[in-house]
Amino acid sequence: MMAIGASALQITFTRPSVLLTQRNLGVTMASFVQESDRALSSKLTSSSHLSSMLNSNQSFTINHPRIRKFVTRSMSEASETKSTSQLSIDLKGKRAFIAGVADDNGYGWAIAKSLAAAGAEILVGTWVPALNIFEMSLRRGKFDSSRVLPDGSLMEITKVYPLDAVFDNPEDVPEDIKANKRYAGASNWTVQEVAELVKKDFGSIDILVHSLANGPEVTKPLLETSRKGYLAAVSASSYSYVSLLKHFLPIMNPGGSSISLTYIASERIIPGYGGGMSSAKAALESDTKVLAFEAGRKHKIRVNTISAGPLGSRAAKAIGFIDTMISYSFANAPLQKELFADEVGNTAAFLASPLASAITGALIYVDNGLNAMGVGVDSPLFKDLNIPTSEH
What we know:
By secondary structure, this protein is α/β, with parallel strands linked by helices. About 40% of the residues lie in helices and about 10% in strands.
């Protein structure tokens, strides 16, 4: 099992300043009144008039049935947000389980940091063979520089669970895996068992993140991929998400969110990304829509996926040409800049927050816009088109 990864970087949140002032409210209401019934314009002659009434707590009556509810709601919201000057991602009191964190270098880690920076409690699931090294690195402080949050504190991981998402329950585990020394000393690491342990330890979660993928024959062209290798890629990279949701949904609080990670190879040809991995990502994206419907109707949980651009993580190095893909993306994407892990992490935090309460079944691209391109503009064939390039 390999977790999709990226370089770990300190996360800086950019919080757009969306101010709801009484004067803005006055402008909005005055415009609304003029459009709905000009006869009322004499009562709401200007934004300053309405603003002064609000500031002095004077009362006024609007009998027009079409706007009475609007006015009441807007005034209430203005009062409630009076002490809040910014629109921010707030996950305080929420608990997240991130499957696929094995080091401080991947997307899973970046997502964990963003969720933690927004106030969420962090639980992680780590591939069993990588568990000892990961926990030892945490204890010895090797990840401390990568744990720094925007406020200067360190991200805390409340608990690390051994996890192999290829297996749903103990009955699925073959004897050779049970006897494998890399699994020695570990227990309760199938998806069902981990969900049961999380329920026992914490009762419930609010956020579920699937940040893992593996294709044992990823370096082989699809035509040279064996059936076993193809099915292994689909099992580890897409069905594992179905399994995680199946077992964790019963302990997810209504209104919660689930997020997975995908890649543009699901819909475009990426030579070298083989072994059935492109098929697995396509399945993951299709499943996202179906799972959004089923999880939404049955449990009121939102399900989305992020299509992240190429990043030079340790796991991605296994593909063998990740540096080439990074260079290609920089040369051809609309935004000619490096793609950072925290940009994916921050997107995940937004999708997990109440700010995204109406977003589900969605595929969100975080790739500097590379998905929008139809051709590679760095080709010599386009040398005479005078295509602008970044100066930096």
